[in-house]
Amino acid sequence: MKLDKVDRKILLELQRSGRASASHIAEETNVSVPTITERIKKLQETGVIVGFQAIIDPKALGLDVAAIITIISGSSQNYKEVTLEAEKNSEIVKCFSTTGNGSHTLIVNTKNSHTLEELLRKIQSWPGVIRTETQIILSSYKYGTKVPINKEENE
After folding, report:
1. Residue 85: exposed, middle, or buried by beta-carbon count in 10 A (0-12, 13-18, 19+)?
2. DSSP 8-state symbol, 13
3. Pick from 132, 133, 128: nearest CA to 76
4. Are 123 and 64 contained in the same domain?
5. Burial environment of residue 103 by CB neighbours within 10 A (0 to 12, 13 to 18, 19 or more)
6. Cβ atoms 72, 130 nearer than 8 A
7. What is the rounded CA–CA span in Å between residue 34 and residue 36?
8. Is residue 145 part of a domain?
9. What is the pLDDT of residues 55-107, one digit of tens each?
10. What domain count does the chain have?
11. In terms of residue numbers, what domain contains 66?
12. Each residue of 7-38: b (16+ CB within 10 Å) or e?
């Protein structure tokens, strides 16, 4: 889908606040409310907007340990099984297929070092997983999932 200037402004506003009303966005973009509503619906239908959600601080829920786990697999034969296993576990908040040393990289949030150890044992028992490498995240300085959006089409 080719995005015009209005679409880009809508996306910028929704990234600032996913709860922004159509009337607020219309005011910010100098476009009518029905046009904004129609554009947002089109952006959702075409997959540009894939959803809306709250960004929650894991520590506020007692999830004090965050980590990046790299999965080292023997081959790509069990690729799909690894992604399916990751999808089943609520402590795994993101799963990426990667290049480099590992086949997958996981972002996890868990209660403490004991629950992290239990999670690592589970992951290491998945089909094709030879070993894992774990980096504990000490501090986070940038939250959210904002995507860079050029204000103009030709940028």
Report:
1. buried
2. H
3. 128
4. yes
5. buried
6. yes
7. 5
8. no
9. 889 999 999 999 999 999 988 888 899 999 999 999 999 999 998 888 999 99
10. 2
11. 58-137
12. bbbbbbbbbeeeebebeebbeebebeeeebee
Give pLDDT, residue 152: 65
Share the mean pLDDT of the chain: 92
Question: Over 80: is that where the pLDDT of 144 sits?
Answer: no
Identify the CATH number of the domain in which residue 116 sits: 3.30.70.920
Asked if 132 and 71 count as a contact pair (C-beta separation under 8 A), the reply is: yes
User: Does the predicted TM-score (pTM) go above 0.90?
Assistant: no
Strands 92-97 and 129-137: unpaired
Residue indicated by tokens 């086949």: 103
Residue 155, pLDDT above cutoff 60: no
C-beta separation of 136 from 70 below 8 A:
no
DSSP strands (E only) in 4-128: 65-73, 92-97, 104-110
* Residue 6, both tokens: 């209005």
